[in-house]
Design goal:
mainly alpha, Arc Repressor Mutant, subunit A, 67% helix, globular, WH_DNA-bd_sf, MarR/SlyA-like, WH-like_DNA-bd_sf
Length: 156
């Protein structure tokens, strides 16, 4: 179990990592903590964390192009095809031709994919609630807002 204040495991000086760790390391530890909580449900369905990010994007925005999914799920385009192929094989997503541009395919959750995404969302929401309880609602909301803006700030 990791220390909530730092994201690092027990046995470490909890003040040292917070002072000395770079942003990328802190973000990776936070991501891993969430992934580990989701892992039992992912394993139950034969999925990876990359699959979950794709399902999460499609849960919010059904019917996206592959390039849009790659950007939103932070998955390299070359890897995305293999991942979406797997999700299609196990009937979690469907592909359909884009009516506006017949050369493009759109990807959306299947009914089964909607159910699996909902099960994973419950776990992720539980983690978010635990973070809010530990940090306080205002700090948790600020963290969520700041993380949503971070990529735009760094990319600018």
């Amino acid at each position: 179990m990791s220390d909530l204040s730092t994201g690092f495991g027990p046995g470490l000086d909890t003040d040292a990592p917070a002072r000395g760790a770079g942003l990328s390391l802190l973000l990776k530890h936070a991501e891993q903590a969430v992934r580990l909580r989701l892992q039992p449900v992912l394993d139950e369905h034969g999925l990876t964390y990359d699959h979950w990010r794709i399902l999460a994007v499609l849960e919010l925005h059904p019917g996206l192009t592959m390039s849009t999914i790659a950007d939103a799920a932070v998955v390299p385009a070359a890897t995305l095809t293999r991942l979406v192929d797997r999700l299609t094989e196990i009937a979690l997503v469907v592909r359909r031709i884009d009516r506006a541009d017949k050369r493009r395919a759109l990807v959306a959750l299947s009914p089964r994919g909607t159910d699996v995404a909902a099960a994973l969302r419950v776990v992720e929401d539980r983690v978010s609630a635990e973070v809010a309880a530990a940090l306080g609602a205002d700090r948790a909301e600020a963290l969520h807002r700041d993380l949503a803006v971070l990529a735009h700030v760094v990319d600018a």
